[in-house]
Amino acid sequence: MSNQLTRRLELLDNDEHHDLLGQGLRGIERETLRVDAQGQLARTAHPAALGSALTNPQITTDYAEALLEFITPAENDISITLNKLDAIHRFTYAHLGDEMLWSESMPGELPSEEEIDIAWYGKSNIGMLKHVYRRGLALRYGKAMQCIAGIHYNYSLPEKFWQLLSANEGIPEERRKPLRDFQSEGYIATIRNFRRYSWLLMYLFGASPALSKGFLRGRPHNLETLSDDTLFLPYATSLRMSDLGYQNEAQSGLTPHENSLESYVSTLMDAVNRPYPPYAELGTRRDGEWIQLSTNVLQIENEYYSTIRPKRVIRTGERPVQALCRRGVQYIEVRCLDVDPFEPVGISLETGRFLDAFLLFCALDDSPAIDAMEGQVLARNFARTVKEGRKPGLTLTRGEQEVPLQEWAQELIERIRPVAQLLDRQHNDDGVHAASLKVQEAKIANPALTPSARVLDEVRELGSSSAFGLRQSRLHAEYFRESPLMPAEEAMFAEMAEASVAEQAVIEQAQTGSFDAFVAAYNSSTLCGE
User: Fold this and answer.
1) CA 381, 385, 387, 389 torsion: positive or negative?
2) Among 39, 169, 303, 469, which one is most buried in terms of CB atoms within 10 A?
3) How many structural domains are present in the chain?
4) In what helix (H) or strand (E) does residue 80 lie, and over which residues does it extend?
5) What are the tens digits of pLDDT across the range 168-204?
6) Is 36 a domain residue?
7) Where on the tree of life does the source sit, at the highest rank (predicted)?
């Protein structure tokens, strides 16, 4: 255990500071496709009863019109967050008719590209900006990519936590950085450690070892054939997070090194402003219609598909990087988690408890800067794990050595253990975080217990990835429909939906100026000083 980790654990274990860890926030964003009773992609518009996809704070769409996104409020305990996520599912199911929510990250059988509708957000300039951005994604990556779903885990520690660390780093008060800068650096350091160890999350929670053959649209691949409609890799954990996911040539050289917030922001802003010749050949319009927001490497900074992001809640009209520049990092968004097809809401409480211990470990442990060489090693470790994570004898690169994945994973669990114990002491000594570690240890010792192995067993038995997804979707639909919300909760969600529709109408009625001018202004507002 590093001296920094030991010192910080002792500091936080002090009775005076015990309550700090319970004041952080947890939020979940869950993406899920609407499908019909046979598991085919729903061709219907976003259900009106769910409100406006533009303005409803808890129920929206992501890329495809059929890809719902559920956003929980931020809560102090992940169990409350998951209860909120469960309620969003139940409200949605009450208004889906015969449709269901797809249970997996990778879609089942998809229709032709022309038949996959891009998410629509109304006729306001901001709504059209979101829609045209997705047109650009379809142009650059194909529409099948817009049907991939994941779980995003939003995590923050309270400001008092960062104040405490800053005051106890042994630096004289007059030389300490402003709290905003110290906190931002702390989150960026957390992200660096996440990069070092996120392969462990893919081994423990990856759940997409197989996919429907049609998803690849004829692209070259090295997958093996499981059946007429299913491709797989025998030891894969998460094909969603492999090079078959949101990757392309334009982004291949884009590797923001999170050694400082300034470095991260400047790398993304360079990509947002740097022309990319193949996109320039396509232009921004076709037959008078906008087809992408720009011809640069990235249309907007969110197009950079990262496993984790520093985040700050944005204000009206503000870009994500502007918010980070002006007010610093507020929380981190973990983006690499597959939907768990064995869980109705897509993630278990046990997984959430482990993530809390893992992320706090990343925040407390020493986190040196990552140079370009180490960055390549970390990317390679991650890539090996998503494609071969359960392979007997698989090694990862640690420093100058090749280390067996299982050996390193167990060592990490031992390093995380005192963090889990600290969280349990803060959590009334109920042992839930330590219990989650025990479950993960069992998966390390026996790869057959991992979600990816369990999924592959089921897919083999049924002979089809889509058949497995359909079966789980039906089971989950039955689970939610058997126990609808209480009338007061139903009314609360209905009121939120109605208010969102009214809010969208106000935005559309109040707007002035052309969409062309709006895009030009948005594209030019990329600097931190603006």
Assistant:
1) positive
2) 469
3) 1
4) helix 78-93
5) 987 887 788 899 999 999 999 999 999 999 999 999 9
6) yes
7) Bacteria
